[in-house]
Amino acid sequence: MNVLIDVSIVPLGVGLSLSPYIAACEKVFKDAGLKTALHAYGTNVEGEWDDVLGAVRKCHEMLHAMGAPRISTNMRLGTRTDRVQTMEEKVQSVIEKM
Amino acid sequence: MNVLIDVSIVPLGVGLSLSPYIAACEKVFKDAGLKTALHAYGTNVEGEWDDVLGAVRKCHEMLHAMGAPRISTNMRLGTRTDRVQTMEEKVQSVIEKM
Amino acid sequence: MNVLIDVSIVPLGVGLSLSPYIAACEKVFKDAGLKTALHAYGTNVEGEWDDVLGAVRKCHEMLHAMGAPRISTNMRLGTRTDRVQTMEEKVQSVIEKM
Amino acid sequence: MNVLIDVSIVPLGVGLSLSPYIAACEKVFKDAGLKTALHAYGTNVEGEWDDVLGAVRKCHEMLHAMGAPRISTNMRLGTRTDRVQTMEEKVQSVIEKM
Alpha carbon B67 to chain centroid distance? Predict the structure, then answer.
C-alpha cells in the first residue's frame, strides 16, 4: 500500500532551534530512498507504507539519540485505491484549477 | 519504543456518516490488544510503536476493504525517554494544575 | 458557524513538563464559556467559530506571557451544515456501532 | 501576533477530487493578501493571526457554499516571540544543515 504523508516532528527539551533535528530526519528519509519535499512547516514523504512509517520511527530514534528526551510529531497520511497520484500531480491538479 | 498516538481517520467517498468506519477501527485497535480512549474528534492509542502503527495500517486496509476509495488520516505521535507516563497520568497531571 | 476543534498546544523552550501550560489553556477555554473535553493528547472544544478560535489565540498569548518563546499547535476543525451533532453524540454514535 | 500555519482542508460528501476546493481556498488566501506556499498535502500561510484565521474561516464558508456539507480541516499553527523567521528562512535553515 502506497502512502503520502506530511510530517512535522517537534523535539522538546532541546531549545528553540529545531532545524538540526529536522535536517537529521531529512537524511533518514533520503537514506531510506524515499521521495521527499521539504516545506516551511513539515515534509512530504511518499512511498510504501512500511518504508515510510519505518523511516518515521527511525527519525524518532535518531532524535532521541541526538539528545531529545521528548518528541511530539504531527502527521497526515493519505492512501487511495482509486488511482495513483504523485506529489507533483497533486500540486499540479490544484494549480490548474486556480 | 512506547508511543502514545491520537488518531483521526477520515474516509472519503463514503458519504457523511463516518461512525461505522471509526467503529471498525476501534475494533482493530481492541483486537490488537492496545489501550484506547475514544473522544469526539479522534482516539488515543497507547503501546509499542510497531503494534500501534501496525494497527493504524490495518485500519486503512480495513476501511479500503469496506469501500472507502480514499482515506485522509491525521495523527499525533508522542515518544519520550525521560519517563513513562500513561494516558490517565497525563490527564491527571493537567487536572491537578487547573 | 459552529465548530468542533481538537487542539494540542505544544510550548517550546519551557522544559519537558507541559501540563501547567495545558492547564492554563483549559482555564482560557472555561473562562470563554466554551464546552471542553480534555484527553491524553489534546482537548475538544465546541462553540461558535469566532469564540473558539479567539480562545485559541488567547491561549497562545497566555503561554507566551508565561514565558514560552515558541509554540507549535496542532488543531483539527470540523464544521458541517447537514446537521448539528454535539461532542457526546459523536462519541455515542461510534459506540453504538462497536 | 504573526503566525505561520500549515493547513489541509478536507471537504466531505463531494466525491474524491478535492482539488477544485483546495484551489478555491488558495484564492481566498490570495485575495486576503496573505503569503502562501502550496505543497502536496497542505498549504503554508503566513501573516497576522486574525488575517490568517479569518481567511481559514472564509475557506470553510466558501466550501460549504460550494456544496460541501461537512469539512474536516487539519492545521498546524506556529507563533514565536524570540525572533521573526519567514517561510523561506525556515526552509533555508534546514537545508543548510543537511
Answer: 20
